[in-house]
Amino acid sequence: MSWSVFTPDSCYFPDCIEDIDKLVIPAGSEQDNQEGNEQLAAAKAAAKGLIESQAIGSTGGDGSTGVKFQTRLNGHANPNHVPQTGFASDTITVSVTQVS
User: Fold this and answer.
1) Distance CA 4, CA 83 (A)
2) What span, in angstroms and rounded, lies between the C-alpha atoms of 68 and 14?
3) pTM across the whole model
4) Which DSSP letter does residue 86 get?
5) CA 15, 23, 17: angle at the middle one, nearest 5?
6) CA-wise closest residue to 70 among 23, 24, 16
7) Beta strands in 14-90, from DSSP E residues, in sequence order
8) What's the whole-number mean pLDDT along residues 36-50?
9) Per-residue confidence at 26, pLDDT binned at 50, 70, 90?
10) Which tens digits make up the pLDDT trace of 47-77?
11) Cβ-based neighbour number of residue 42 at 10 Å
12) Mean pLDDT across the chain, nearest whole number?
């Protein structure tokens, strides 16, 4: 199952963390959702960690300063995370971007 989610608007910290927490993958089979949701949880944690680390811009700390962020999370999950002939391997991509 391939999935892609993103925060629709750029926002300041801490609102962007709340927006990341609200992301969900589209409904699919129960098995797809299990693997996809496992990946999404890891991707959310990575995105939040990047923002909170301030490695890509100051969060400002008060919710109205610093830089704005936009987040895009993508992945592909095979059943039981086992490679399947003819299908993509499991992958997770996390993109956190500064927005002016």
Assistant:
1) 20
2) 10
3) 0.86
4) T
5) 25
6) 16
7) 68-76
8) 94
9) confident
10) 999 998 888 888 776 555 678 899 999 999 8
11) 14
12) 86
